[in-house]
Amino acid sequence: MPELLTTHAPALAMLLVGLACHILARVVEARESGDGQTLAGWLSQRPYKTALAAGGALAAYGVLAETGQLSLLTAFGAGYLADSALEMVTARARRAVGGEA
User: Fold this and answer.
1) Has residue 74 got a pLDDT over 60?
2) Which of 39, 40, 80, 89 has the largest CB neighbor count within 10 A?
3) Contact 8, 65 (CB under 8 A)
4) Cβ distance 57 to 66 under 8 Å?
């Protein structure tokens, strides 16, 4: 088990850094548009989406590890893109439910 942790700990840390960077970028974007959003406010307004994004990032991590494509860079990218991918999927689902597919 310790061998597994030392193998994956740096990549998992990069996955979390990527996810955190994207969330912080979204908070900064909201603040710049005059929303006055804080990180705590952002997370409290989106607890399920944040958890789903983290779960999606972990799933992507598993795919990268299983296919031999895992690196610190791909782990960071998976974390950074997880929140964006979730937003795209939920926007498409909203359009489909609203009849705009």
Assistant:
1) yes
2) 80
3) yes
4) no
- Please state the pTM of the whole predicted model: 0.81
Round to whole Å and give the CA distance between 73 and 10: 11
Q: How far is CA 28 from CA 2, 24, 70, 87, in A?
A: 38, 6, 29, 17
Whether 50 and 23 have beta carbons less than 8 Å apart is answered as: yes
CA dist 2 and 88 (Å) reads 37
Helices (H) and strands (E) counted in the chain, each on its own, are 4, 0
Only one residue has tokens 């990218």, namely 77
Find the domain containing 69 and state its range: 2-98
**What's the domain count of the chain?**
1
Written as one letter, the residue type at 37 is Q
